[in-house]
Amino acid sequence: MTGRTKERAWAKLNLCLDVTGILPGGYHALRSVMQSVSLCDDLTVSVSPGEGNIRVGTNRAYLPTGEKNLAGKAAAVFRDAAGLADVDFAIEIRKHIPVCAGMGGGSSDAAAVLRALNRLCGTGMDTKTLCKLGESIGSDVPYCVLGGTALAEGRGEILTALPNMPECFVVICKPKFPVSTPEMFARIDSAAELPHPDTDRLVDAVKAGDLYGAAASMGNVFETVLPKGQREIASIKGVLRSSGAIGSVMSGSGPTVFGLFPEREGAEAACFVLRQRYRETYFARIPKSWDEME
Ligand code: C5P
């Protein structure tokens, strides 16, 4: 078997993120509205006759190669599920999504590898099967297989597709302080009281195609338990708001913050201001339809 294909891995944002309990096995029960945005990594996935070897190359020297990279892990999971022991896999990733940011970059790369290999190898797995394979790679991978707008529950693997968010512009800003996802979950566990976002209100607004209602309902339970950087998050939100953002929130377990804008001009102005302080500031879109992005 020989072939090569290209695939895009869209970044994800959590429009809202809530932790509702602890699951058997120690993972947390989540409720989150997840959203793909136009910022993406570009992957080239190749297969050739071989012995099941997996090679991952990226334009970021500090990222792991091989199966330690989630993209390589995805190739291994796919190889084993499809019984392809006599094929080698090569994955080249041009990364644009910030790393360790709460934007699902690694998970989205893994999901893109599953989609690309399914196409390339003619294995004909349906989306549900690919999502199931994704579960063993990481909690956000099943959503990233689907993309678009979706409600994620359970560990993140119970997915309900939602109508696409109304078209808008997004400014994404990653401050420099690092966060550790397991540590953030531990902080949630020891918090006395948590202000939970109103996920149902957000879902209703998305269903009604109400951009302003959706933006006003965004929230993230992790914001309140940040050990440091809360002030920085507040100051980024201030810039976003004063440039015309109709809502802003932290994504995932942080530290990335984003704002939604109905107009391109406001988003561009916010980008200009934030880039002076934060190198990792990005302009992105939620398109009217994902078909136009192919
Ligand atoms: O599944 P994933 O490897 O992305 O999760 C990273 C870490 O985040 C886990 O080791 C766990 O500490 C935490 N997590 C959790 N509950 C979830 C998802 C992630 O506790 N639903």
Q: Kindly provide the radius of gyration, computed on alpha-carbon positions and rounded to a whole number of angstroms.
A: 19 Å
Biggest β-sheet strands, sense, barrel: 7 strands, mixed
Total number of domains: 2
CATH topology of the largest domain: the name is: Ribosomal Protein S5, domain 2
Number of strands: 11
Low-confidence stretches: none
Bound molecules: cytidine-5'-monophosphate
CATH class of the largest domain: Alpha Beta
**Overall pLDDT confidence:** 97
Percentage of residues in strands: 25-35%
* SSE series: EEEHEHHHEEEHHHEHEEHE
Category from helices, strands and their pairing: alpha+beta
Shape: globular
What percent of residues adopt helix (DSSP H or I)? 25-40%
Describe it for me?
- Helix content is 33%, strand content 30%.
- With 294 residues, the chain is an alpha+beta fold.
- The protein has two domains: 3-161, 2-Layer Sandwich (Ribosomal Protein S5, domain 2), CATH 3.30.230; 168-293, GHMP kinase, C-terminal domain (Alpha-Beta Plaits, 2-Layer Sandwich).
- Strands 1, 2, 3, 4, 5, 6 and 8 form a seven-stranded mixed sheet that branches.
- A hairpin with a 5-residue loop joins strand 1 (3-22) and strand 2 (28-49).
- It is globular, with a radius of gyration of 19 Å.
- The model has no long low-confidence stretch (mean pLDDT 97).
- Bound molecules: cytidine-5'-monophosphate (C5P).
